[in-house]
C-alpha cells in the first residue's frame, strides 16, 4: 500500500520547569509553578494522596498563554485534553480513559477549520483517520481495521477531485465471538466487520449461509452481524462485499469464506 500513508500520532506533552520558583498550597489543592520572572509555568491540582487530580494547566514559555489543559483522575489522564497554539487558539482536542487515548481526536488550523481527525480505542487508532485542506475539503482518508492495518486509502485535491484510491471492500480482520472453536446449539455467532463507506457510493455486505442469508446496506464503516443456531452440523459462510455507484453500477466486489461446526 502507498508508502506515503500518514499516521496521526498524538504525543503527550511534557513540561519543563528550569529556573522555576515553586509555591505549594496545602495538600489536596493546586501546585503553582512560576519562572524566575513570576510568569506562570503550570497549575497542577493534586489529591490528598499526591496524585494529579483535576484539570492540569500548562503555559507557553514565550507568550505565557495557556498551552495545554488536561483532565486527570488520581494520576491518570481521564477526560478531555486541549492544546492551544501560541495565539491562544484551540489546536487540538483529544479524549482519554484510564490513561489511554480513547475517542475522537481533532486537530485544527488557527482559524478554527478542522485540520485532521481520528478515532481511538484504548490507545489504538481505529476506524477513520482524515486530513483536510485549509478550505475544509478532505485531503486524505485512511481506514484502519481491528488488526491495526490500513485497509483503504483515498487522496483528493483541494477541489475534492479524487487523485488516488486503493483498498478492499471490507477488511479481512474480523472479530468473531465466541473466540473458541466450539459453538453449540442455542448459541449465537457474532462477527464484527469493517467496510469501506464513502460519499456517493453504496456499500453492501451479504452474510450467506447454506440455509439462509443476511444483507446489510451500510451507512457507516462498522457492522456487527449475529446469527443463532438451532441445529447442530457443519456450516459454510460466505461474506460478500459490494460497492455500487448511485445508479447501482457495480464498482468493486470481494468475498471471504469460512467453515465452522455447531455441536449439540
Q: Quick one: CATH class of the largest domain?
A: Alpha Beta
Largest sheet: 14 strands, antiparallel
Number of domains: 2
Kindly provide the radius of gyration, computed on alpha-carbon positions and rounded to a whole number of angstroms: 25 Å
Characterize the structure shown.
By secondary structure, the chain is an all-beta fold. It has 2 domains: 20-167, Alpha-Beta Complex (Outer Surface Protein A, domain 3); 175-263, Immunoglobulins (Immunoglobulin-like), CATH 2.60.40. The chain is 0% helix and 58% strand. The chain contains no helices and 22 strands. It starts with 19 loop residues before the first strand and ends with a strand.
Topology:
Layout: E1 20-24, E2 30-35, E3 40-45, E4 54-59, E5 66-73, E6 76-84, E7 90-97, E8 100-101, E9 103-108, E10 114-121, E11 124-132, E12 138-144, E13 150-156, E14 162-167, E15 175-177, E16 183-184, E17 188-194, E18 201-209, E19 213-218, E20 222-228, E21 233-245, E22 250-263
Parallel strand pairs: 16-22
Antiparallel strand pairs: 1-2, 2-3, 3-4, 4-5, 5-6, 6-7, 7-8, 7-9, 9-10, 10-11, 11-12, 12-13, 13-14, 15-17, 17-20, 18-19, 18-21, 21-22
Care to give the gist of this entry?
Helix content is 0%, strand content 58%.
List its traits.
264 residues; mainly beta; Outer Surface Protein A, domain 3; Immunoglobulin-like; 2 domains; 5-stranded mixed sheet; disordered N terminus
Amino acid at each position: 500500500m502507498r508508502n506515503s500513508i500518514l499516521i496521526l500520532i498524538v504525543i503527550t506533552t511534557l513540561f519543563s520547569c528550569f529556573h522555576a520558583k515553586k509555591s505549594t498550597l496545602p495538600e489536596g489543592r493546586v501546585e503553582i509553578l512560576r519562572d524566575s520572572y513570576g510568569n506562570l509555568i503550570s497549575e497542577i491540582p493534586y489529591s490528598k494522596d499526591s496524585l494529579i487530580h483535576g484539570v492540569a494547566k500548562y503555559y507557553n514559555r514565550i507568550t505565557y498563554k495557556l498551552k495545554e489543559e488536561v483532565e486527570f483522575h488520581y494520576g491518570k489522564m481521564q477526560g478531555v485534553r486541549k492544546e492551544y497554539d501560541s495565539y491562544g487558539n484551540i489546536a487540538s482536542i483529544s479524549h482519554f480513559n484510564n490513561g489511554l487515548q480513547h475517542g475522537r481526536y481533532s486537530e485544527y488550523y488557527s482559524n478554527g477549520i478542522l485540520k485532521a481527525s481520528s478515532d481511538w480505542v484504548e490507545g489504538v487508532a481505529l476506524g477513520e483517520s482524515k486530513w483536510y485542506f485549509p478550505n475544509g475539503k478532505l485531503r486524505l482518508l485512511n481506514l484502519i481495521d481491528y488488526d491495526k492495518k490500513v485497509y483503504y486509502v483515498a487522496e483528493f485535491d483541494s477541489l475534492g477531485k479524487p487523485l488516488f484510491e486503493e483498498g478492499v471492500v471490507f477488511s479481512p480482520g474480523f472479530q468473531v465471538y465466541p473466540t473458541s472453536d466450539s459453538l453449540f446449539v442455542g448459541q449465537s455467532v457474532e462477527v464484527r466487520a469493517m467496510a469501506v463507506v464513502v460519499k456517493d457510493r453504496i456499500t453492501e455486505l451479504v452474510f450467506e449461509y447454506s440455509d439462509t442469508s443476511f444483507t446489510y446496506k451500510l451507512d457507516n464503516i462498522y457492522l456487527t452481524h449475529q446469527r443463532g443456531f438451532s441445529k447442530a452440523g457443519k456450516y459454510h459462510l460466505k461474506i460478500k462485499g459490494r460497492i455500487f455507484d448511485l445508479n447501482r453500477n457495480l464498482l468493486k466486489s470481494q468475498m471471504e469464506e469460512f467453515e465452522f461446526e455447531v455441536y449439540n
